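note to self: dont lose this again. the chain is below, predicted strucutre after it. 334 aa total, dont forget to put it in the shared folder this time
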Amino acid sequence: MSGIREFRAAEHNRGWRLDHFLAVNLPQLSRSRLQTLIAQGCVTLTGETIGDPNKRVKPGDLVVIDVPPPAPAAPQPQKIPLNIAYEDSDLIVIDKPAGLVVHPAAGNLDGTLVNALLAHCGDTLPGINGVARPGIVHRLDKDTSGLLVVAKNERTMRSLAKQFAAHAVERLYHAVVWGCPRAADGVVEGNVGRNPFDRKRMAVLRGQGKPARTHYRVLEKMGRGAEDNSRPFAALLALRLETGRTHQIRVHLAHIGHPLIGDPVYGRNRQPPRAKTPEEQIAYEITAEFPRQALHAGVLGFFHPVKQVKMRFESPWPDDFARLINALRTVGTA
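---
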């Protein structure tokens, strides 16, 4: 939002801090954003410019705030096709394809989801903290496909961030892993932090990193060994995040000895066994050539901050993911 807004203090506002008074009347803006505007001289109290957010208001005071237009975002808008699962004036749910980076960073300064959203939303993006940009509440790795929600304004950004922090957002992933966990379901726990020997990788650490919990359930055992339950070649898992650390699923699955098929970082040393049939050979070739980690964010559910309703979205498996699973289902069945 931008432009001039006027508010008259009532009797029940007596003694309120100026930033608190504005926060109540302008819930679209965060308290920190309002404090910045006050410090920048954008607020007057009964005609006098006020630079102190602690200033107390009195009944009858006229508070005027001039909110400048959002500053242009550093990333530039780029017309990149988007698969939009849902959109309204407050948020947008994207079904992200594998290969699309979410946020610009070193090595990926453009061609990202943020660039695409800036082009798609255009002038309808009110901005976050005075900058015309989408509110990235959570992320998916470049080569992870599936659903994510993006806020269009500060109010939605704050609400969604609180829901994620309170573990109130439903996030269900499907993953194809090497081998199969012994238990049909369970929880992987372990602090996740930077690998002390390789800063580009994350690792499960003792006494360091941040607490992380990943719930898993075996949906299907695939490949040779699946029928007699000896040592299945691969498995399809459903995963639910209780926390959201960088590379959490990938690190936790590798930690228990079942890394994601196709993971170039945490599963790169795993190779298919020797094929016994032509069908197995084809399936193993598909597995070996799978170009990314086999991870898909299939379900996303949250409480809409403005409409006050529960929203839930499902994303079907992308073609490469479905092809991998279908190929693995043929292993050992001939």
